[in-house]
Write a structure and sequence with these properties.
The complex is a heterodimer. Chain A is mainly α. In chain A, 76% of the residues lie in helices and 0% in strands. Chain A folds into 2 domains: 74 residues, no CATH class; 215 residues, MetI-like fold, CATH 1.10.3720.10. The relative contact order of chain B is 0.14. Classes of the chains: A mainly alpha, B mainly alpha.
């Protein structure tokens, strides 16, 4: 296990290097001027571009730039954005809000998704099962922003149950609807995965044994069936934490939440790549590390899996 | 919860027969015949099939559905609600929302289909090559795939599109669509590469492949005549679902202002344009959103039907 963890960690290194290099390369090197539109309606004067290129190290070869980027990343120096505001401060303000939003979304996915999946899986073909199947189908085909605008319109504009946008403080009650929107797609996946897993395990010998022993139905389901069926679901939830964070770009944009996603959304609209690169790098790191943790967790949850 | 009948149910559910619903007949069977036999009995398949035909017709011949010009704007009618004259009302520029929704189908379907095609070509090719030749080619392809998979979808697209076609630039209609298609394929190929790779690795050591090799078949013949046809099922399932998700992704990117943009007519653009007018005229936002969702739903349902029919485990 320990050796497996170390090997996986080492395998992560080239992936992190490659991904961050792709980000750096794409943002700074692809055709297209990173400073276009920074001077209002007219094209930027050459002197400004030269000065900016020098300030952000764009006059150096790409590998040198990348090396500097890595050095800064490891020392926690994110530099300043085009307006001279420290990127680290902005990240520090935004990070807690996004984490709160993502955790709430994961909680919704787990509670509603697993609940619906268990109910429909236990009575296959029943009324609940049909309702869950149809509603997951609908959720799967609604892009996240459609769900977002729809709920904002119905609950916020028509019924006045919620404020259509979230305040700066982004308290937990305010984040309930955005978290539901963020979770909606994965909620449907979770429900389906749980259902499949339950249906498969219902046929397993150990469930038959447990029933034959005369255990109560409740005990068979909660202790024997659920524990085994939830392993793939938990790993799915884990791997999705990382992509939730980038899904938050849309949700935070719609509900005007000042988290990481909102920061990125504004940085893109304002074409401030000095924010885009560190934020994207951080999101990628979270994504990769959460995938790694899930892989390791898999062995803990399911002892049948042996790491070579 | 603990009554005995429920327990009975539990066991009965477990003991359901899993035999193939397809009656065995004397004629020559193939995977595709079986699949078709199962598909044609499924309601979900026929519903999605009819919806698909409607959307394809809409994309090919929009004039069948509306005689109005989607670009014709009457500013006096800006944000007017639905009426007998214009079923879905008018948008911010006073253009007919229904006409624009109908014309939007073409863009979405072109982008979805072409991006999926590019993904399949790129991912399928690299996957088959990696699995067939193994060794360093496999290692390189897999690692590069991991790097692209490490980029979450929206994030990767934002980074590329934000730089290649920034909001101020003004490339032509075809160029805008081409860039979006390339970006979707570039970020999507590793998943398909993995599917193709594992399918080929599984097939590679089967007896029939060994036999073909022993008979002197070259790599090209082995790949195209023996390995590919047997990896087609999982690829096809993924492809159908991908078209739907790419259509959704295109709309998401257009919403962010970095995907498609005018003069292209697209549901995503329509939604983005009217998102801030939700309080006064939600119709201009909700109708394109409904078209978009129905279109994605079509492909998701079709994908599910095809998957259920092609996956022998579920039979």
């Amino acid at each position: 296990m320990g050796r497996y963890a170390i090997r996986r960690l080492l395998q992560l290194v080239p992936v992190v290097l490659g991904t961050t290099f792709i980000i750096n390369y794409m943002v700074w090197q692809l055709p297209g001027d990173p400073f276009a539109g920074r001077c209002g309606q007219r094209p930027c004067p050459d002197s400004y571009i030269t000065a900016m290129r020098e300030q952000f190290g764009l006059d150096q070869p790409i590998l040198v730039q990348y090396w500097n980027f890595l050095k800064n990343l490891l020392t926690g120096n994110f530099g300043t954005d085009f307006n001279g505001v420290s990127v680290a401060t902005q990240l520090g303000d935004a990070w807690p809000i996004t984490i709160r939003l993502a955790l709430m979304a994961v909680a919704f996915e787990a509670i509603i998704g697993i609940g619906a999946g268990v109910l429909s899986g236990l009575k296959r073909g029943g009324f609940v099962d049909n309702v869950v199947t149809v509603s997951t189908l609908v959720l799967l085909s609604l892009p996240i922003f459609v769900t977002g605008y729809l709920l904002q319109w119905i609950l916020g504009v028509q019924l006045h149950i919620i404020e259509p946008t979230v305040s700066d403080a982004a308290t937990v009650p305010e984040l309930i609807v955005p978290a539901l929107v963020l979770a909606s797609l994965n909620m449907a996946f979770t429900a389906r995965l749980t259902r499949t897993s339950i249906v498969e395990n219902l046929r397993a010998d150990y469930v038959r044994t447990a029933v034959a022993k005369g255990l109560s139905n409740r005990r068979v389901v909660a202790i024997h069936l659920l524990r085994n069926s939830l392993i793939p679901v938990l790993t799915f939830l884990g791997t999705e934490v990382g992509s939730l964070m980038s899904g938050a770009i849309i949700t935070e944009g719609i509900f005007n939440i000042h988290g990481i996603g909102g920061l990125l959304w504004r940085a893109i609209n304002g074409q401030d790549y000095t924010i885009v690169v560190p934020v994207a790098t951080l999101l990628v790191l979270v994504y990769l590390v959460s995938n790694l943790l899930v892989d390791l967790l898999y062995g803990v949850l399911d002892p049948r899996i042996r790491y070579e | 919860m603990s009554d005995p009948t429920a327990t009975q149910d539990l066991i009965k559910g477990a003991g359901e027969p899993t035999a193939s619903p397809v009656a065995v007949r004397g004629d020559r069977r193939s995977l595709w015949r079986d699949t078709w036999d199962i598909l044609k009995r499924r309601k979900i398949f026929w519903i999605s099939f009819v919806m698909l035909i409607v959307f394809l017709l809409m994309a090919a011949f929009p004039t069948l559905f509306t005689h109005k010009d989607p670009e014709y704007a009457t500013l006096a009618k800006s944000m007017e609600g639905p009426s007998a004259d214009a079923w879905f009302g008018y948008d911010l520029q006073g253009r007919d929302v229904f006409a624009r929704s109908v014309y939007g189908a073409r863009t979405s379907i072109i982008v979805g289909v072409l991006a999926t095609l590019a993904t399949v070509l790129l991912g399928g090719l690299t996957g088959v090559l990696a699995a067939y030749f193994g060794r360093w080619i496999d290692a390189v392809v897999s690692r590069v795939g991991e790097m692209f998979l490490g980029l979450p979808y929206v994030l990767g697209a934002i980074i590329i599109l934000g730089t290649v076609t920034p909001a101020q630039s003004n490339p032509g209609k075809a160029m805008i669509m081409a860039v979006v298609i390339i970006v979707l394929a570039l970020l999507g190929w590793p998943i398909l590469m993995r599917i193709a790779r594992s399918a080929v690795i599984q097939a590679k050591h089967q007896d029939y492949v060994q036999a073909a090799r022993a008979l002197g078949a070259g790599p090209l013949r082995l790949i195209f005549r023996h390995l590919l046809p047997n990896s087609l099922a999982p690829i096809l399932v993924y492809t159908t679902i991908t078209i739907g998700s790419y259509i959704g992704a295109e709309a998401t990117l257009s919403l962010l202002g970095i995907g498609l943009r005018p003069p292209v007519i697209s549901w995503g653009i329509a939604i983005a344009d009217h998102a801030s007018y939700m309080r006064t005229g939600a119709h201009a936002l909700l109708f394109p959103a409904a078209f978009l969702s129905l279109c994605v739903l079509t492909f998701v349902m079709l994908g599910e039907a095809v998957r259920d029919a092609l996956d022998p485990k579920l039979r």
